[in-house]
Amino acid sequence: MLTRRDFFRASAAAATCAALPGKARAASAADTSFLFVFAQGGWDPTRVLATPFSNRNVAMEDAAERATAGGISYVSHPDRPSVDSFFGAYHDRAVVMNGLMVRSIAHEICTMIAMTGTTGGTTADWPAIIASRDAGRYVLPHVVLGGPSFPGDLGAQVSRTGGSGQLEALISGQSRDWSDMPGGGPSRPAEQILDRYLARRAAARATWGKGRDARLTADFSSAVDHLRQLKDLQYVMDFTGGADLASQAEVACDALELGITRCLTLSATSGALGWDTHANNDADQSLLWEDLFYGLNQLLIRLDNTAAPGGGTLADSTVVVVLSEMGRTPNLNSFNGKDHWPYTSALLIGAGLTGDRVIGDFDAGYYGKPVDPGSAEVVEEGPVLSAESLGATLLAMADIDPAEYVSGVEPLVGILG
């Protein structure tokens, strides 16, 4: 039986496809969607992504061992079965980046560098920049379910859902009831009359808006259209993701399936301190890595089995970027923890990548080794991998000239398919 939710869902999907030129758009760099999964607090890459077992300067876990899936070597441990499951199933789509420099050991600064390549705090982050291109195609160009967001001057393109359903409450009007002095809203029939009036005004302005007024006219028309779509979407999907990555992945895939967003930021952090393990590093990091890869497995399953608006599945047109703001020191401290370290790792998964490989490495001092951007191979001399080179690569994958936003670095064309 067709439910009200199914009806609105089908209608929303049809409306999205109708807005695209032709019956379907072939996947291209300009159509690629991005999911950013952020592990706040500073993860320890030697527990999964980096494998310096032969380096006596690095403390590795008991019972950990090097494992290989396709062309990727990683750290396997009995307490992290989801890591083995992930690389066994998806190694051919994955690129591990080791020795990534973030230039600081302060959480706030490293987070800004990881997401923007700068320390100013006013520069838009990678997802906001990507989402701002062709933003008129999307009701909510960049959706933040969790994790950091630096919108810069692109705040109009960024929407944070709120952990308590704040976005849904704004859409439905329930937020009026949250005030200490609740205010009444229009009745449903009156609201429909107001919506029709706004739509007519937008259409009328479009006929005479010219010159300097043309931009305002276009923005007004887009805002009215997005208002209508958002009201319909309240019957289609739940915008509030849970605290765990798997539940956020459900919301993210719903939004991508409906074509209402291009970029989403998700959080892979649990507990009061998240990944900031200055004490009890091994046990706490192990649990966090297991939870992260359990969520990534659920996310990839959904991407594989969800249709994309332009044809194929979401897996065909989505890049998943998994990162943390910093790494952790190579050795344990007196509390069996690890402190902050300015070199880390990242994981890229999905469309447009030459997967099944590890790029970069750590030297004997656990610093990043130089990498040639053209081949993505380790070299004797040259720049190390950096947050800026990662950002430039993501922008290039989105069909955006990195030089507009990042200077002094080249994208890693060696990993682009």
**Helical fraction:** 25-40%
CATH-derived architecture of the largest domain: 3-Layer(aba) Sandwich
Write out the CATH superfamily name of the largest domain.
Alkaline Phosphatase, subunit A
Taken as a percent bin, the fraction of beta residues is 5-15%
Number of helices: 10
Overall pLDDT confidence: 88
How would you explain this protein's 3D organization?
The chain is of the alpha/beta class and 417 residues long. It folds into 2 domains: 17-165 and 239-415, Alkaline Phosphatase, subunit A (3-Layer(aba) Sandwich); 186-238. It contains 10 helices and 12 strands. It has helices at 4-18, 81-90, 107-116, 126-132, 166-172, 188-208, 213-233, 245-257, 281-304, 387-397; strands at 33-39, 65-69, 72-76, 94-101, 142-144, 158-160, 263-267, 318-324, 327-328, 340-341, 343-350, 357-360. Strands 6-5-7-1-8-11-4-12 form an 8-stranded mixed beta sheet. It has a two-stranded antiparallel ribbon with strand order 2-3. A two-stranded antiparallel ribbon has the order 9-10. A hairpin with a 2-residue loop joins strand 2 and strand 3 (72-76). The protein is globular.
Descriptors for this entry?
alpha/beta; Alkaline Phosphatase, subunit A; 417 residues; 10 helices; 2 domains
Write the layout of secondary structure elements.
Blueprint: H1 4-18, E1 33-39, E2 65-69, E3 72-76, H2 81-90, E4 94-101, H3 107-116, H4 126-132, E5 142-144, E6 158-160, H5 166-172, H6 188-208, H7 213-233, H8 245-257, E7 263-267, H9 281-304, E8 318-324, E9 327-328, E10 340-341, E11 343-350, E12 357-360, H10 387-397
Parallel strand pairs: 1-7, 1-8, 4-12, 5-6, 5-7
Antiparallel strand pairs: 2-3, 4-11, 8-11, 9-10
Helix pairs in contact: 2-9, 6-7, 8-9
